[in-house]
Amino acid sequence: MTPRTRLSVSQARRIALSAQGFTDARPAAPAARHVARVINRSNLLQIDSVNVLVRAHYMPLFSRLGAYDRALLETSAYHPKKRATFEYWGHEASLIRLDLHPLFRWRMARAARGEGIYGGLARFGREKRAFIDGVRREIETRGPMGAGELSDGGKSQSAWWGWSDGKRALEWLFWAGEVTTATRRGFERIYDLPERVLPSAVLNAPTPPEDEAQRELLRLSIRALGVASERCLRDYFRLEPSDAKARIPELVESGDLVPVTVEGWNAPVYLDPQARLPRRVEARALVPPFDPIVWERTRTERLFDFRYRIEIYTPAEKREFGYYCLPFVLGDRIVARVDLKADRANGRLIVHSIHPEASAPPDEIAPALGEELRLMAHWLGLGDIAVPDQSTKRIGAILA
Fold first, then answer.
1. Which residues share a beta bridge with 38?
2. Whose CA is closest to 116, among 127, 133, 104, 128?
3. Last residue of a domain, which of 153, 170, 198?
4. Within 10 A of 1 (CB to CB), how many other CB atoms are there?
5. Could you tell me where the DSSP H helices lie in the chain?
6. Fewer CB within 10 Å, N side or C side of the chain?
């Protein structure tokens, strides 16, 4: 698009949805190349332990591709010869494009110095370095293993999610880039040395200076976001505010970020100079709390007039919408939030509640939502959709 100096909220919203792939038609038969396309566009998939519906990293692909084979992502993530991603701290724990590994080495180096990591883990690294080195030697000698397989796991610390010293040592080594994830057993991370997991071409690629790596991460962020504030840009790869504030003016100077104003946004906003502004967006997608389109909640509210908070850690009696509510995107708007659970034992997708937005009459959104829920149930191998909440029955009747 031709760079503009001012955008309406509607224009900014369509740019954002296009940047995240919501204007692409879903393929009839999603294949490995489609999975790669989504990952290449978003750069990473966030990993989270919540499994009430499906693990977080699987969902953004479903939101964009429809009912794809999850084995395609497993291959991309962990296949010894077809691996296209690696696990590291991108936006929280993430599966990151493999070719971006050099851009995170500055973060690994900082972590090894005790910078940019949890204070308790940094202190553990200073005080227990001999123990940590012993854990690394054991992996080098014995091969890939989980924390429970260490010969000396050490004592557990209740303040650290019950982590043993061995688990903390492995996590310190992971932060520092001295071990990586070879695979996962269930959801347990299995650690090994990077040289036995990642391709030599990746590990031997030149390490860019810290400032250049940060500039490139911000370039990738604006391409994935389309339009973003400084806070949104640094949040994408969780850059420190001081680093982002130093790099952003450099990217404005180079033309990689175009300053714009967006209706109703008070903070400075930047546009990807290559961003697409589609005339229309015909999206239909349930998106998880860990999807890039809703990562930065202030941006979500400004773009979609949709205040979104995850209520997993909210006591049940204080929840406003539900334990695991997914925003439902229809067209270029978020029109509802749906609280879902996969009841695997009984083969049911449970719709605990549906909360349409005030601007979206339930009867207008129900057919599209019904199609998406049926597609999700099929994707998850669930034969039935259950709507137990009486207040949801009006929409539930259309889902039958």
1. none
2. 104
3. 198
4. 15
5. 9-19, 32-42, 59-65, 70-78, 105-112, 119-127, 129-142, 165-175, 194-197, 200-203, 210-225, 230-236, 241-254, 297-304, 362-379, 393-399
6. C
CB 387 within 8 A of CB 351: yes
Q: How far apart are CA 384 and CA 266, in angstroms?
A: 46
Are 174 and 227 found together in one domain? no
| Model pLDDT for residues 137-183, shown as the tens digit of each residue | 999 999 999 999 998 755 555 454 557 899 999 999 999 999 999 99
Residue 181: closest CA among 193, 167, 165, 164:
193
Nearest 5 degrees, angle CA 165-CA 170-CA 173?
125
Residues 300 and 294: beta-carbon distance below 8 Å: yes
pLDDT over threshold 50, residue 271: yes
Question: Which pLDDT band, with edges at 50, 70 and 90, does 21 fall under?
Answer: very high
Question: In terms of domains, do 215 and 188 share one?
Answer: no
Strands 325-331 and 283-286: what pairing? antiparallel
Q: Are strands 283-286 and 156-157 parallel, antiparallel or unpaired?
A: unpaired
Is the confidence at residue 397, as pLDDT, over 60? no
Question: Which range of residues forms the domain containing residue 172?
Answer: 114-198
CATH number of 314's domain? 3.40.630.30
- Number of domains within the chain: 3
CA distance 4 to 14: 14
Find tokens 């997608």 and name the residue. Answer: 285
Domain stop point among 246, 271, 296? 271
In a domain, 1, yes or no: no
Distance, in Å, from the CA atom of 192 to the CA atom of 196, rounded to the nearest integer, reads 7
Nearest CA to 327 out of 292, 361, 286 is that of 286
Q: pLDDT digits over 339-386, tens only?
A: 999 999 999 999 999 999 999 988 889 999 999 999 999 999 999 999
* SS3 annotation, 168-229: HHHHHHHHCCCCEEEEEECCEEEEECHHHHCCHHHHCCCCCCHHHHHHHHHHHHHHHHCEEE
